[in-house]
Design a protein that fits this description.
This is HIG1 domain-containing protein. This protein has 3 helices and no strands. By secondary structure, the protein is an all-alpha fold. Helix 2 runs antiparallel to helix 3. It is elongated. The model has no long low-confidence stretch (mean pLDDT 89).
């Protein structure tokens, strides 16, 4: 096999990407997978409510909220994994 000359390099043909800030990236990622921020907010809300119950001395309710926090964290983790699977499948096709 004879190798021919390399193709010419044209710097003007490369696409130009703009700088993406934190807010832009957050909005884009939220649109791609809206369940992750929802799960994070649920986890934060249940955790806060559980800590308030603990401070007030309502240990039974505090324990219930800590168990609910674990469920909310599991939902968030499942949402992240599901989003990664969907993104990987979109990249393949």
């Amino acid at each position: 096999m004879a190798a021919g000359p390399p193709p010419p390099f044209e710097p003007g043909a490369l696409p130009a990407f703009r700088e993406e800030g934190f807010a832009d990236k957050f909005v884009r990622k939220t649109r791609e997978n809206p369940l992750v921020p929802l799960g994070c907010l649920c986890t934060l809300g249940v955790l806060t409510y559980g800590l308030i119950s603990f401070k007030r001395g309502n240990t039974r309710h505090s324990q219930l909220m800590m168990r609910a926090r674990v469920v909310a964290q599991g939902f968030t983790l499942a949402a992240m994994l599901g989003g990664m699977v969907v993104t990987a499948l979109k990249a393949r096709s």
